[in-house]
Amino acid sequence: MNSVEKSIIRDVNLAPQGRMKMDWAREHMPILNRLREQWLVQKPLAGRRVAISLHLEAKTACLAELLRDAGAEVAITGSNPLSTQDDICAALAVSGITVFAKYNPTPEEYKQHLLLTLETRPELIIDDGGDLVSLLHSERQDLIPYVRGGCEETTTGINRLVSLEKSGELRFPMVAVNDAYSKCFFDNRYGTGQSVWDGINRTTNLVVAGKTVVVVGYGWCGKGVALRAKGLGAKVIVTEVDPIKAIEAHMDGYTVLPMIEAAKLGDIFVTVTGNKNVITGAHYRVMKNGAILANAGHFDIEIDKVSLERLAVNQRVVRKDITEYTLEDGRKIFLLAEGRLVNLAAGDGHPAEIMDMTFALQALSLVYINENYQKIGPSVIDVPIQLDSQVARYYLESQGIQIDEMTEEQKQYQASWNL
User: Fold this and answer.
1) Among 16, 224, 288, 406, which is most buried by a count of CB atoms within 10 Å?
2) Is 298 annotated to bind ligand?
3) Is 91 assigned to a binding site?
C-alpha cells in the first residue's frame, strides 16, 4: 500500500489546499531549508522509522518532510484533537508520509491514531506532551526494543519523562528540546506570546486595549503572553505559586495577586501553567459578567470545565470556538476553544520563523540520538549546546545578522584562573 492507502485522514481531496499552506510556511523557514539541502545528499536518517506526535499544521508538515528527505520512513499523528488540520494531513499523505489524524476525533479515535502510529514500529520518536512515550511504557511495551530514542517538544511532556526517569522506568534516551535556549527563549516567549493573542483576537473580534488581562503562570510562555497583552494596551495581572517568578513579574511592571483576587478583576484570563485546575469554581463565583477564559497549556485541564458546567444553568456555542456559560445569577462566562490550546485550536499556532528554530532543534536532536543512543542510555538529556548554538547561528545568518567572535587572547583569558 502507498501512504495514502495506509493513512487515516478526513479527505485526500484537501491535499492541494494543504500544500499551499505548507509552501507558504516553507518560504519562511530558512533553517529547515538549509538542513534539507544538506540532508538530501547526506541522508543521516536513511532507513530509520520515525514516529511523530505534534500539532498537525503547516510548520509541523515541513518538519515531517525534512525527516523524509533525510531518508526516514515517517508516520505522524496529532498531539491535540483540535489543532489537527485536515488539509495538512491530506497533503502529507500524498507526499509519502503515513498519517493517522483527523480534526476533532473522539477520545477513542485520538488514542487509536496514537497506537496506529506506534504500530509502525518506530526507531525514533518526536513527541509533544508525552502521549506516544506514555503509551509505549504502558500499553505497548512490546515495541520498546525497536526504539533508539527521541525528542520531547513541551514542558508537560518533559515533566512526564522526568517522572518516568525518576521511577527507573524510562527505557530509552529522550532529548528535552523544550529546555534548549533556542526553544524556550523564543518559541515559548515570542511564539506563544504572539500566537495566543492571534487566537484570542481572531476568535473574539474584541479589543484588548483597556481591558484587564490575568496571566496565570509566569514561565517563559506566561512572560510572552503578558508582554504582548501589555503591548496591546491591556492592564496585566500575573498570578504565580513560585516566589522567584512572582518577583520577576513584579519587577517587570505587572500587578501580582492571588488567583482569588485576580478573578474579581479580570476581563480576559489566560492559563499557562502546565498544571490542573488553576481556575476553579471558587473563581467563577466572583468573576465579572462577560469574563473570557483561554488556555495556552498543553492539556485542557488548567481551566476546571467540570465545575464551570456544574455552575452553569445554560450553555451554548455563541461563535466558532466560543462557548457561553450562563450562571444562576445571570452572569455569563465565555470559554474559548473548549479550554484547549487557544493558539492552535483557535488559530494557526506559532509564527513560521519561530517554529523554524524549534523544528531545526528537533531534527538535529533526532539525528544526534540516532547516532549516540547506545552511549547515552535511558535518560532525559538536554540538547547538546553545539546544536543549540548551530541553530542560533543559522537563524542569524538567515536574517543577515553578523556578530563578533572572541579573539584567541580573550578565549585564553576567559579560560584562565590566574588572571
Assistant:
1) 224
2) yes
3) no
pLDDT of 290 reads 98
311 Cβ neighbours under 8 A, 6+ residues apart = 281, 284, 285, 325, 327, 328
C-alpha grid cell, residue 118: 506506534
pTM for this model (two decimals): 0.92
On whether 199 is known to bind a ligand per the annotation, the reply is no
Type of residue numbered 62: C
- 223 known member of a binding site: yes
| pLDDT at position 56 over 80 | yes
203 labelled as ligand-binding?
no
**188 is an annotated ligand-binding site residue:** yes
297 in a known ligand binding site:
yes
Helical pair 30-42 and 352-376, crossing angle rounded to 10 deg? 40
Residue 120: DSSP 8-state: T
H helical segments located in 119-191? 131-138, 155-166, 181-183
Q: Is 217 among the annotated ligand-binding positions?
A: yes
For the chain, domains (ranges, CATH) are: 3-183+350-398 (3.40.50.1480), 193-345 (3.40.50.720)
Q: Nearest-CA neighbor of 98 among 83, 82, 118?
A: 118
Using an 8 Å Cβ cutoff, are 268 and 214 in contact?
yes
The residue among 60, 346, 353 whose CA lies nearest residue 203 is 346
E strands, 219-308, are 235-239, 255-256, 268-271, 291-295
343 appears as a binding residue in the annotation: yes
Q: Is residue 154 part of an annotated ligand binding site?
A: yes
Which pLDDT belongs to residue 276?
A: 96
CA atoms within 13 A on the CB side of 71: 14
